[in-house]
Amino acid sequence: MNPLMVEALRRTVSESLDPGKKAALGQFLTPLSIAKFMASLFPAQQKAAARLLDPGAGMGSLSAAFIDRWLKGEFPFSTLDISAYEIDPEMGKRLSDLVAANLRNDKLLFKLTTGDFIESAVNMIQFGYRGSFSHAILNPPYGKIGTKSKYRLLIRQVGIETVNIYTAFLALSIELVEDSGFVVAIIPRSFCNGPYYRSFREFMLKRTAIHHIHIFGSRRAPFKDDSVLQENIIIMLERSGKQREVTITSSDDSDFSNITRQCVPFNKVVIPGDVESFIHIDPSFDQSSRLGTINNANHALKSLGLTVSTGPVVDFRLKTHLRAWPEQGATPLLYANHYRSGALVWPLVGKKPNAIMETAETAKWLMPNGFYTVVRRLSAKEERRRVVAYVHDPAKFPDAKTIGFENHLNIYHHNKAGFDADLAYGLAAYLNSTVVDTQVRTFSGHTQVNATDLRSIPYPTENDLKKVGKLVMNQPDMTHGMIESIIESIL
């Protein structure tokens, strides 16, 4: 199959597909430039025969790029056996017709299964077909897997725990590749951090060595034809391989015209002793390392006597107690939308309530009015930084004994209560700094910032943060640049 011909057909098919159907299947067809780059990552192993797995094949772009390398003599395999899977019958028919019309090589076998890859892969593993492939190349579909869904029950049967279809595809591909076999995938970056993907990260790191990670400068770059706003990476893994340095490449777009490259020690990608097994990716590790050196930020959050939790008020569970406006017997309820452009705006006209009744039923979900550092779990569109922190000042609510923090906020607290004002201001300034933003971006692949993420970053000492806080409190009109200078000088 000529990759250029496949690419032309991909564009035609992609434009004709119903957007709702594409979103429901969670799969977007791989552009030629991405497919060629992914195929280029496979080393030219001295094998007599190659057996390639292409789950979620779409129009066959990834297989075509692999075949193209083989036909050009870049792979020394004498024969190539490809097993492709496509769940969409219409897409499968187009691919089958394409293969039948264009593959004329007795040393190349292309088998297409129109059906569910997850079901097929689980069956193969259960019947002893682990290690059936020497290579796997994939652009898997995205979609959540419910705790009691068919897919969750299926993958559990072969020892896999994960929450998204794309990580299920990757885990199953890893299981189906032989020792010293390679897997190359383009997938969302969200698996790199967060508690929900911890089991998958442990699964992957136990079975494979990470050799290469590519990141894109724009979230739109990989699948711009489909207007997909998703932070994707390309990753190359070796089954049971020896872990060496990791090659990190980056490009501004999917044409790879301005690619940068560096080799990074594995202990900077996965920090030794990290119980969460976060995967840190950044195009400039030298910059992100400032947190542990220049800024002397190498302490755990618990050393500050603080912890961070999501806001305890889940509004739909307390719906009867919510009030649109403050009234007698109610206390302020703060949502993420109350924090904007560096300030608190409350009460706020809109769909969200501004208060919650103080009752015996709501008491355990409210917190004493005091100084807290508050971080939005989702940064607003106008915010450039991933972490956006504010100080909750009790003086803004002089008549309130308690405060309600909604679940889309992260709250730093001391034993579920407030703490010193200077520490709250110093902590907020530190969290809003460029170095923290850089640190979080090395392991966070989405705009959401969870409490687990915030617990994982290193912190300065309590004394240093209080020094920063005192200066920030005494000069309330400071610009962000001035605050950055204070942090630089003290830390």
Q: What does this entry look like structurally?
A:
- The strands form 4 sheets. Strands 3-2-1-4-5-7-6-8-9 form a 9-stranded mixed β-sheet, sandwiched between helices. Strands 11-15-12-19-16 form a 5-stranded mixed β-sheet, with no helix packed on it.
- α12 (421-431) packs across α15.
- It has 16 helices and 20 strands.
- It is α/β, with parallel strands linked by helices.
- A hairpin with an 8-residue loop joins β8 and β9 (260-264).
- The model is unreliable at 285-294 (pLDDT under 50).
The biggest beta sheet is recorded as: 9 strands, mixed
**How would you classify the quaternary structure?**
single chain
What's the number of extended β-strand segments?
20
Q: Residue ranges: pLDDT <50 for 5 or more in a row? A: 285-294
Widest beta sheet: strand line-up: 3-2-1-4-5-7-6-8-9
The residue-averaged pLDDT reads: 87
Which class do the helix and strand fractions yield? alpha/beta
Distance between the termini: 58 Å
**Helix amount:** 25-40%
In short:
By secondary structure, the chain is of the alpha/beta class. It contains 16 helices and 20 strands.
Which features does this protein show?
491 residues, 20 strands, nine-stranded mixed β-sheet, alpha/beta, 31% helix
What topology emerges from the helices and strands here?
Layout: H1 3-16, H2 19-25, H3 32-40, E1 49-55, H4 61-71, E2 79-86, H5 89-102, E3 108-114, H6 117-126, E4 133-138, H7 150-156, H8 165-176, E5 177-188, H9 198-207, E6 208-216, E7 232-239, E8 246-251, E9 260-264, H10 266-269, H11 285-288, E10 307-310, E11 322-323, E12 330-334, E13 339-340, E14 343-344, E15 355-357, E16 367-368, E17 372-376, E18 389-392, E19 402-405, E20 409-413, H12 421-431, H13 434-441, H14 451-456, H15 462-474, H16 480-490
Parallel strand pairs: 1-2, 1-4, 2-3, 4-5, 6-8, 12-19
Antiparallel strand pairs: 5-7, 6-7, 8-9, 10-20, 11-15, 12-15, 13-14, 16-19, 17-18, 17-20
